[in-house]
Design brief:
Number of helices: 5
Largest sheet: 6 strands, mixed
Strand order of the largest sheet: 2-3-1-4-5-9
Structural class: alpha+beta
Radius of gyration: 19 Å
Distance between the termini: 22 Å
Strand content: 25-35%
């Protein structure tokens, strides 16, 4: 899948509606054959099957991907999507239309498209506000203080714990550093509403 988009979804609210959605998705992924024939690697978990099960038209709702990690407990329904080009926000809006008693939270990122979006402004379910890609690994962080400390340790000087100071330090370090094996990429999750995406 070229330029994949990844999205974690957490749904809370009316327990009957949550259970109904979970049962639909569970039945789809446990079928012997996919509801609708498709060319996806996990054809039974193709998002188009869910669109159809919710009464939508998979040719009109963006559903180019699959879901995984479906789980339900007494407080929330969770699943993860991997899709091509863009996160399947239209499916979340369809779920909200079919199940108006549910609140839908997401955290989405697009590899190669450089988008990092969430509608969880309070960090109820998705606390990470930053993604820091820097040797030796790529990870997620909740606060700019954590990021400032890690970047400061990497470049060898203390950085004030503010976004402006961290971005300025990274830019200055990038300008001075010629080593392509050494890099710092910092991305911030933008808070948006489901209606904006």
């Amino acid at each position: 899948m070229s330029n994949p988009a990844f999205m974690s979804v957490c749904i809370v609210g009316d327990r009957r509606q949550m259970s109904s959605l979970y049962q639909k998705m569970l039945r789809l992924q446990n079928r012997k054959k996919s509801l609708i024939e498709n060319g996806f690697y996990y054809p039974k978990r193709w998002l188009g099957n869910l669109v159809a099960r919710l009464g939508g038209d998979y040719k009109e709702v963006y559903c180019r991907g699959t879901w995984d990690d479906l789980s339900l407990n007494s407080k929330r329904l969770y699943f993860f999507t991997e899709s091509a080009w863009n996160a399947p926000f239209e499916i979340l809006r369809l779920i909200k239309k079919v199940y108006p008693g549910l609140e839908i939270y997401f955290s989405a990122e697009g590899e190669g498209w450089d988008f990092y979006l969430t509608n969880d402004a309070e960090g109820r379910f998705f606390t990470s506000k930053f993604e820091l890609d820097m040797p030796p690994e790529n990870d997620y962080y909740d606060t700019i203080e954590e990021v400032a400390e890690l970047v400061g340790n990497y470049i060898g000087r203390r950085i004030e714990p503010s976004k402006e100071a961290v971005y300025a330090a990274i830019e200055e370090w990038d300008d001075e550093n010629e080593d392509i094996e050494a890099y710092i990429n910092l991305k911030e999750f933008e808070v948006v509403s489901l209606d904006e995406v």
